[in-house]
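User: I'm writing a short report section on ligand binding and want a predicted complex to refer to. Could you take this sequence and pyridoxal-5'-phosphate and write out the structure as tokens? A short remark afterwards would be nice.
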Amino acid sequence: MEAKPYLQQVPAYRPGKPIEELRRELGLKGEIIKLASNENPLGPSPQALEAIIKTAPTVNRYPDGAAFELREALKETLGLSPREVVIGNGSNEIIDFLIRAFVSEEEEIIISRPTFLMYERFVRIAGGKAISVPLKEMRHDLGGILRAVTSKTKIIFLDNPNNPTGTALKIGELESFLADLPLNVLLVLDEAYFEFVRDQEVVSGLSFFRDDERIIVLRTFSKAYGLAGLRIGYGVMAPKIATILEKIRQPFNTNLMAQVAATATLKDRNYLSRVQRIIWEGVDFLNRELVALGLLPYPTQTNFILVDLRRPARPVYEALLHQGVIVRPMDSYGFENCIRITVGLPEENQRLIKELREILQ
Ligand SMILES: Cc1ncc(COP(=O)(O)O)c(C=O)c1O
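Assistant: Sure. The structure tokens for the complex follow:
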């Protein structure tokens, strides 16, 4: 029995450590906090919970594969035509669809290094190749990316803002990039963290994707909308590209609970502003406190902060685990001295700072 040879080179994905795994491994008794996977600390919208409870008795039926209600809600709230939207089992699934639809074996995508790990994983699984261009001053190097384009390049993936650095591209930078990008290359703007952006010069691809058929925008309900555990996200694109992805999509790729919860959350306008307020206050608090500890937090447009500890970060990460605090070590992203902290509730942020202070002393 032999799998495709190139699969042997694909490393296993290492997600943020789950709370229960840490409890089992270290036998910890007290409260464990997880600030590792850029999740929303607030819990889901009460309206999403209500929709889930109301829908639970009907899970003996398949969901509406076309997710009609959710597309309607996206039309009402964001002005997106249902023909422009493909709903995925997390926005991860849309990344997978795009690669399966457009990248053949031996063809290429271009990504930054480091960036969100799934672009490279999906392309390698498909037998294609990821060409990675190092970040420049912690930002996407758009000039370097343009120089890396070849006749094999099919898609460029830019997470805007970038995970793990938290930096975002301004509209002017994107406009000049598009002007120089060959017409046959797709540009995916992955806006998983867009709802947390505060910089006014950072503009969503949703406001200009209709001007250029090469642009695809990804959005998720896993972050600001608090539904990571249900797995639902979407891609926005020209209808002719959406039609291609719809051919790849399994008939029931998103589950019923995810669909009703996402629809309800979109309609709950108060929820998003509550989340934004708590995350922005958390970012400001953590930045102040981290600087006071002599550390270097990178400015962020997201719900996480990349922090340079100015020493090897692994031992600090391990020590935090023993105190029941899970953050993300960044050595696998090439940042030996950094951890990535997801902004939590105020008391979680305070606890992190307290534990960090004790460890660093
Ligand atoms: C940049 C980026 N894109 C996409 C995702 C995946 O989101 P989803 O949960 O919708 O698959 C993440 C999650 O961490 C991310 O950081």
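A remark for your report: Residues 38, 90-92, 116, 159, 163, 190, 192, 220, 222, 228, 233 surround pyridoxal-5'-phosphate (CB under 6 Å). Residues 45 and 265 are 6 Å apart (CA to CA).
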